[in-house]
Amino acid sequence: MNEFTLILVTGLGLGALYFLAASGLSLIYGLMGVLNFAHSAFMMAGSYAGWEVMRRLPDSMSVTLRLLLAILAALVVGALIGAVVEVTLIRPLYKHHIQQVLVTVGLSLAAVAVAQAVWSADPKPMESPEWMSTTTELGGALLPNDRLVFVAVALALFLGLLALLRYTRLGLIIRAGVENRTMVEALGINVRSTFTIVFAMGGAAAALAGILYSQYVGAVSPAQGGSLLIYAFIVVVIGGMGSLVGTAVAAVAVGLVQQMANYYAASGAGDLSVVLLLAIVLLLRPASMKGGHA
Amino acid sequence: MSAKTVLKVLPGVVVLVVLAVLPYISVTIPGILPGRVNGPGSLQLLAVCFIFAGFALSYDVIFGRTGLLSFGHALFISAGSYLLTISLSTWSLPLPLAIVVSLGLTTLLALVVGGIALRVGGIAFAMVTLAFAQAGSIIILRNPGDLTGGEEGLVLNRAAIPSILIGVQNASYRYWLALGFVVLAWVLVALLARSRAGHAMAAVRENEARAAVLGFTVYRVKLLAIVVGAFLGGLGGVVHAIVLGGSSPHLATAEFTLALLVMVVLGGAGRLWGAVVGGFVYHYADARLIELSGSSLVSSLPDLIGRLLGEPLFILGSLFVIIVYFAPQGITGLAVRALRKERA
């Protein structure tokens, strides 16, 4: 039973990371129909920004405080990059969805190369507060603290985004934009500036995912964003594209399935079981994938 | 044959003849090719360039001609490559049978993966194909049952290959093999484009709903495009394994699929010459840009810029973005436009 609780929590922790990575992707896709390949570059930018901040702050500061500042820096960098990419690269290709995807592909390739040139391809060790690597006893099981942190952050982001979408004017515009963009434009609302804001939000969420993922792995490396991005894609597809609740449910499901398969079947079976899950969902409910509601 | 058709076919034939006799030409072109033109280094580089041109042609059947944004094509190329090396070494099949098995299983894989992925459309299709390709990449890296060799890749069982294709002194035969592959791929895609199925693909690309109204079974047309593309890609994988003497897990990565997309868009999607030029230029640039970064010109530049130029992906990625913006028809599209202006 303890074992099961442990797997449940580690699976949830993994699902939380997937949600962090997928939420921005899902928002951007839902509103603008852009499959943002540069999301991996945003994640990478976040983790390197965090790493640089951690490295430059004085050692006398506690690791926890430095990490908090690093996360703050990552959020700012992610939001800025997201906004800049939207204004300079995505906006000019308005209504050309395939070209928008292609541009983000080019950007993601170039970004990995830039990171390799600046920081080299070697992974850089990422410092982590001591309390994160210890465990908490809960219901007789020793649970790793970092997974609990991931779950808490993801939950906070989920509830925050949900509140934003449900109770603010911006959220109203985003929800309406997902439903029917032409109609919102016809009402005289500037959807374009909303796009920039959503891209900035997506960038910030990606950067947050990036820095937390580097805590999970214990290092930052140029290719890291790409490996997380693929799971984020799977989560977004299973969750029904553009739906935040669906994304959350799918992220939890994918994290749990992966962890369980790794534990009960064979190490490495997890990744395959995730793709299998995707195939099953597609075969059983293809209609749910065609786009959804925020 | 009328004069017009002769004029149309002539450039291609001339290029082909020149390429076919290259292994007999013993001159050096400094800066362009490593060593003599018919030296093993140059021939090997050109052979891999041809294979990449064929890869791009195979991907263009799916992306350029049918308009499907698939991110899973690397799966089929690596399947062809790995199935050949595995059936030669682990299953000890003779070469002809091994080729048939590789192509058969790759086509079957395309039917299954394409059949599932086509249940969704548009952007979701891109994501699903990417997921399947990633599963393939993971399987190859995990090395189940010691079958795929993991990160090291697999070495080709040389005993099973005709000796004429082995060794440094036989580089020209491998060169001709690669050239033969790209010519075959060219002819097949050209024939396909003119067939009824090819017209159906174009109709689906231009307007799916209208194609459906016209009576095409859109699902079947798309599946056909995926299967034909996968067959050609798998054949390319087989040739790649023979020319490079083994299979590498790099062929299965998501990055490689993205590279295929870059090749096709770089050259010009939906054009035979576009895919060929794109694939050729991509591999050439990828292989030669590293050399450029070692040159004295670059080392005189500031450190960071020098290191950036040493990353071929940086240059190709940026070039890609520029092409998407300013030359959506790719390199060949630019050339066609320039020629038309001159004539007018």
Automatic annotation (TrEMBL), chain A:
<comment type="similarity">
    <text>Belongs to the binding-protein-dependent transport system permease family. LivHM subfamily.</text>
</comment>
<dbReference type="Pfam" id="PF02653">
    <property type="entry name" value="BPD_transp_2"/>
</dbReference>
<keyword id="KW-1003">Cell membrane</keyword>
<feature type="transmembrane region" description="Helical">
    <location>
        <begin position="189"/>
        <end position="216"/>
    </location>
</feature>
<keyword id="KW-0812">Transmembrane</keyword>
<dbReference type="GO" id="GO:0005886">
    <property type="term" value="C:plasma membrane"/>
</dbReference>
<dbReference type="InterPro" id="IPR052157">
    <property type="entry name" value="BCAA_transport_permease"/>
</dbReference>
<keyword id="KW-1133">Transmembrane helix</keyword>
<keyword id="KW-0813">Transport</keyword>
<feature type="transmembrane region" description="Helical">
    <location>
        <begin position="228"/>
        <end position="256"/>
    </location>
</feature>
<feature type="transmembrane region" description="Helical">
    <location>
        <begin position="148"/>
        <end position="168"/>
    </location>
</feature>
<feature type="transmembrane region" description="Helical">
    <location>
        <begin position="6"/>
        <end position="27"/>
    </location>
</feature>
<dbReference type="GO" id="GO:0006865">
    <property type="term" value="P:amino acid transport"/>
</dbReference>
<feature type="transmembrane region" description="Helical">
    <location>
        <begin position="63"/>
        <end position="89"/>
    </location>
</feature>
<keyword id="KW-0029">Amino-acid transport</keyword>
<protein>
    <submittedName>
        <fullName>Branched-chain amino acid transport system permease protein</fullName>
    </submittedName>
</protein>
<keyword id="KW-0472">Membrane</keyword>
<feature type="transmembrane region" description="Helical">
    <location>
        <begin position="101"/>
        <end position="119"/>
    </location>
</feature>
<dbReference type="InterPro" id="IPR001851">
    <property type="entry name" value="ABC_transp_permease"/>
</dbReference>
<dbReference type="GO" id="GO:0022857">
    <property type="term" value="F:transmembrane transporter activity"/>
</dbReference>
<feature type="transmembrane region" description="Helical">
    <location>
        <begin position="263"/>
        <end position="284"/>
    </location>
</feature>
From TrEMBL, chain B:
<dbReference type="Pfam" id="PF02653">
    <property type="entry name" value="BPD_transp_2"/>
</dbReference>
<feature type="transmembrane region" description="Helical">
    <location>
        <begin position="97"/>
        <end position="118"/>
    </location>
</feature>
<feature type="transmembrane region" description="Helical">
    <location>
        <begin position="223"/>
        <end position="244"/>
    </location>
</feature>
<protein>
    <submittedName>
        <fullName>Branched-chain amino acid transport system permease protein</fullName>
    </submittedName>
</protein>
<keyword id="KW-1003">Cell membrane</keyword>
<feature type="transmembrane region" description="Helical">
    <location>
        <begin position="12"/>
        <end position="33"/>
    </location>
</feature>
<dbReference type="InterPro" id="IPR001851">
    <property type="entry name" value="ABC_transp_permease"/>
</dbReference>
<feature type="transmembrane region" description="Helical">
    <location>
        <begin position="45"/>
        <end position="62"/>
    </location>
</feature>
<dbReference type="GO" id="GO:0015658">
    <property type="term" value="F:branched-chain amino acid transmembrane transporter activity"/>
</dbReference>
<feature type="transmembrane region" description="Helical">
    <location>
        <begin position="123"/>
        <end position="141"/>
    </location>
</feature>
<feature type="transmembrane region" description="Helical">
    <location>
        <begin position="173"/>
        <end position="193"/>
    </location>
</feature>
<dbReference type="InterPro" id="IPR043428">
    <property type="entry name" value="LivM-like"/>
</dbReference>
<keyword id="KW-1133">Transmembrane helix</keyword>
<feature type="transmembrane region" description="Helical">
    <location>
        <begin position="315"/>
        <end position="336"/>
    </location>
</feature>
<feature type="transmembrane region" description="Helical">
    <location>
        <begin position="74"/>
        <end position="91"/>
    </location>
</feature>
<dbReference type="GO" id="GO:0005886">
    <property type="term" value="C:plasma membrane"/>
</dbReference>
<keyword id="KW-0472">Membrane</keyword>
<feature type="transmembrane region" description="Helical">
    <location>
        <begin position="256"/>
        <end position="282"/>
    </location>
</feature>
<keyword id="KW-0812">Transmembrane</keyword>
